[in-house]
Every structure is written in structure tokens, then in C-alpha cells.
């Protein structure tokens, strides 16, 4: 921001210097032209006076003089001097001008507002200096007016440049400052916050939109890891408790060999179940890390639903999933979406797992269909439902409905699933009735056939 201010002030300075230089250049050019033009007019009148004095061509001179405008306070003078530059005779001459006059040729000079033009003439062996003086009315009146006008114009121009620059600075910096303020509010504890994106298609809007997309990816990555911890802490605890309990029971007293074999077999079965859950959980967790190199490609959503079903069952064998593919379209292309299969599997697995977990019969009903430009996935349960007044908070990370105290969980799965769906330009909506169940509706756009 400081560099931006420095650049702005430097630009203001350059504009002011340029404007002042332009004004000075105009003033100098006009003044120079006025001086040059007036000296030419003086020289003309001096030559006419010389013709009149030395050559006696009165007729021609008088004729010429009638057509030459007399200048303001015009005055003619003549000086006769010897070879030692001593004045012998003069007429109308002010001796104070003697030092300004070139005694060997032509001289033009100015004293105050009076301009002079003199020239050396040799007549019959005698030396004369003949000169004409006049006041330059254009210089004394018009140029002064022009100078005052340019000074006022310069001051107004500088003021205009400063005001416009400050307004431009404010219009540029204000949205940037607001953007910085919103970014500073975002931390690891509230990654769900997003920057305000204006409707225009300016650079700042694109920057805010890009930053929001990056936040969504980061939030998804965080939630994926937390989701793994949540699932692992809950799903792995049951088989571990079973293994420990069987082992403790077997070691509590001396038993027959056959009883030990039965205990060891139960432990082996529980360990195998534990291995399956661990593999499934690692599969889900890995998607979060692979997401860092997010690459979308055409994937079939029905295959993803089936993979998610297998994953959920592997994590908890008590969960039941009833899948309805009766609404599938004949054209398999209508089931293809442009996305990440691991991420979509992670999102669907979480929702299906929640549907099973919060239902007394531990059953989720999944239906898949297609519409004009997308696929529709419905995941329904007949569980406890969500209180209506709490529906607006279900997308907040770590929020859990007031009727879920008897169920394990951290409130991460649904926000994570919604973020993944949003990354695929889809929509996730939830409708629920307390005590009757919840329905999650997912819409994903199908892939454009032109991209295939």
C-alpha cells in the first residue's frame, strides 16, 4: 500500500510539473513571438524614417507612412557622432540609452515597457545612429492578461489533478482495503467464511472469487482430515474394545485349549473387521490429500454411488443401504459428470453413513436419476430428523442438532459433503421432519459432450 501511495504521489508530481512546464512553454513562445514581431515593426518604421531623413524621398515615404499604423507612444531620434563615438549632434535622443546602442550596426533592446530599434547609417562621410522607440501595447496589456490567465489555469489544473488523483486513489484503495479486512477475519477456526464477490467482472471480483475457491479447497482438505479422525475414533473403537474384551476374558482364568482356540478365532475375526475398516477409512482420508492436485475428469456417478455403498458397509457392517437405480436414463452419457471420483465418493459416503447412523433401522435409501443437464441423487432415511429451527445451522462446521446427543459425531460430514458438491458446481439441499427422517438432494451438472 505504501508503494502504491508513492507511485500515486510521483504521478501527481509528474502531472503538476508537466502542466507547469506546458504553461511556461506557452508563455515563453508567445512572448518571444510578440518581441520578434514588434522589433520587425520598429525596424520598418526606422527604415522609413531613414529614407525620409537621408534620401529625401518624401513622396514615397509619406505614402508609405500613411499605410503604416503609428505605434503607441512612437518616437524617433537621431544622433550624429564622430569616429571617437562622441556625440556631435542629436535630436530627440535620451543620452541614457547611449550604452545600450550598438555603434557599429543594428541593435534592438527593451527598457521597461519601451522597445528600441537603432541602426548605424553613413551619409556623406558622417556617422548617424537613427532609432525608433514605442511601447508594445500587446506586451504591456495582452501578455499580462494572458500570464494571469495561465497562472489561474495552472492553479486550477493542479487542484484538479490533485482532487481527481485522490478520488481515484480512494476508489481504488477502498475496495482493496475492504478485501483485506475480510481476509484478515478468516482463520483456521472459521474457514467457512467467504469474501464478498461483487456482480461486476472486474479484477477484484475475479480475485475474490478465486480466493473463495481456494478457501473451499483448503476447508475441504481440513474437513477431510478431521472427518478421518472423527470416523477413526468412533469406528475403530468398537472392534478394538471387542478384541481387548475377548483377550481379557480368555486370560482371566485357566481354560481348555478348545476355549482358547475359540477366543483366538474371535480375536482374529475382530482384527480382520478392524483391518477392513482401517482400509476404508484410509481410502476416504487419502482423497483429501489427493485433492491438493485436483484434476477433474469424466466419471460415472452410478459407479461412484456403488463404490460409496461398499465403503460405508466396510466401515460398519450394521449399516444397510437400499439403492434404487430404476430412474437411470438409457443414455449412459447422462450419468457422466466432470469431477473427482474420490472426492464425490467421500461426499456420498458421508451422507449415506449419516443417514444410516441417525436411523433406528440403520438403513439409508439411495435413488439416482437424471434430468436435462444433470444428475439427481436422493439420500433418504427414516431417522430422528432435524428440528426445523436448527436447519439453517446444519452447514456450519461442528454444529450438531440438539437431538443428536446420543449419537457420536463431530458435525463435519455434511459441511464437507456440501463443499465437495460446490467444487463440482453442484447443489446440495437438505429437507427434514423431526422424528420422520431427512432427505439430502444432490444435483450435479453432467459433462458437456463437446468436451469429450
Automatic annotation (TrEMBL):
It holds the Pfam family HisKA. InterPro entries: HAMP_dom, HATPase_C_sf, HATPase_dom, His_kinase_dom, HisK_dim/P_dom, HisK_dim/P_sf, HssS/ArlS-like, Sig_transdc_His_kin-like_C. Residues 231-448 form the Histidine kinase domain. The keyword Signal does not apply. Residues 170-223 form the HAMP domain. One of its GO terms (molecular function) is kinase activity. The chain crosses the membrane at residues 7-30, 145-168. Its EC number is 2.7.13.3. Keywords: ATP-binding, Cell membrane, Kinase, Membrane, Nucleotide-binding, Phosphoprotein, Transferase, Transmembrane, Transmembrane helix, Two-component regulatory system. PROSITE patterns: HAMP (PS50885), HIS_KIN (PS50109). PANTHER family: SENSOR HISTIDINE KINASE CPXA (PTHR45528:SF1). This is histidine kinase. It comes from Sphingobacterium bambusae. The lineage of its organism: Bacteria, Pseudomonadati, Bacteroidota, Sphingobacteriia, Sphingobacteriales.
